[in-house]
Write a structure and sequence with these properties.
This protein is α+β, with helices and mostly antiparallel strands. It has helices at residues 3-14, 62-92, 98-106, 173-192, 209-217, 240-250, and strands spanning 18-21, 33-41, 55-57, 112-118, 124-141, 149-164, 197-205, 221-222, 230-232, 266-268, 272-278. Helix 1 crosses helix 4 (173-192). The protein binds coenzyme A (COA).
Length: 292
């Protein structure tokens, strides 16, 4: 059985078929908005994923899947289009339009999409995409001696996307999807399918402050190999004449002189950070890293 097939089986049981939202930020009525779940498995080879009610396999029905994936690309454009436009050439190392690169990435083998569609319009309002993968930066200690590290790298669930349209944001939906359903999916994969998934991992643009706040709030940390901010202290240029003048005025060597003016720090941000959420329930396994 393929990892993707396991992922589909578990996610189908854990993520609810419908979600009810009390507030629809776009309307003034108190009517509940109902969202219906749809799953898409990206299996370019045959992974025996049965196409059934609201579960699509890319291998078996790529035409239907392409229609939905293009709608998800529109959500991405709506939410993060300007950031992708700015960073595309750096992150994809080419000059193609960002959407062209993104749609290829969105069809990466092994990805599972959990999509929630509006009950009335049938259009997607939110989606997550994730896959099981290895992370060589996270190492698993051996059972008998926690100081001795085995060579096996840890498996993680890599969250490629979590995207909510603005009208359904800030209602704890993102929190519930990650800390409840996705975490539970990992726990079941470990317990019932003998996986060693020790964390949820993701990449976030360093200028996506709202998302960073959200991830920190749910307990995510920097991975050991995440790019980090660099603090640059500008050196003040001092001429020989000002040094002598300062020394004679204060009657002490210039090295001991301090200026009262605070030095302005310059913070240089990387393009993105790598974050992870440890899954404590993955019993004996611990993370080999020291993160703040
Ligand atoms: C980021 C996102 C997934 C969060 O989902 P959500 O359902 O809106 O978030 P929640 O309601 O669960 O928020 C939980 C906490 O996160 C923080 N948070 C969420 N959205 C925030 C925002 N826009 N600005 C600042 N903090 C925010 C808050 O501290 C909030 O806690 P509070 O309600 O007690 O203040 C969602 O807003 C989204 O899809 N944003 C656009 C796309 C995006 O940036 N995705 C991430 C790509 S890496």
């Amino acid at each position: 059985m393929s990892e993707l097939l396991h992922l589909v089986d578990v996610a189908e049981n854990i993520f609810p078929e419908t979600l009810e939202l009390l507030n629809d930020n776009s309307s003034t009525s108190n009517q509940k908005k109902v969202l219906h779940r749809q799953l898409i498995a990206i299996d370019s080879k045959n992974n025996q994923i049965d196409v059934r009610n609201n579960v699509l396999s890319y291998y078996k029905d790529n035409v239907k899947c392409d229609v939905v994936l293009n709608k998800l690309l529109d959500i991405l454009d709506n939410n993060l289009g300007p950031i992708y436009l700015e960073k595309s050439s750096k992150i994809y190392c080419n000059e193609k339009p960002w959407k062209e690169n993104k749609i290829v990435e969105m069809k990466s083998e092994g990805l599972l999409y959990v999509i929630y569609n509006d009950d009335i319009t049938k259009e997607p309002l939110l989606f997550m995409s994730f896959m099981i993968t290895d992370d060589p930066s996270l190492v698993v200690p051996t059972d008998n001696d926690s100081n001795e590290l085995s060579n096996s790298t840890a498996a993680v669930i890599y969250l490629y996307e979590i995207q909510l349209l603005e009208l359904i944001r800030n209602q704890k939906l993102g929190t519930i999807l990650i800390t409840n359903y996705l975490k539970k999916t990992i726990e079941i994969l470990n317990k019932d399918y003998q996986k060693n998934i020790i964390a949820l991992e993701l990449t976030v643009f360093s200028n996506n402050i709202n998302a960073i706040n959200f991830y920190k709030k749910i307990g995510m940390l920097y991975t050991p190999d995440s790019p980090r901010d660099k603090i640059i202290l500008p050196q003040k240029r001092r001429t020989r004449s000002t040094t002598i003048a300062l020394e004679s005025k204060n009657n002490e060597p210039s090295s001991r002189l301090t200026t009262s003016k605070p030095i302005k720090k310059i913070i240089k941000k990387p393009d993105y950070y790598l974050l992870f959420l440890p899954i404590p329930e993955s019993n004996k396994i611990q993370l080999n890293c020291q993160c703040k």
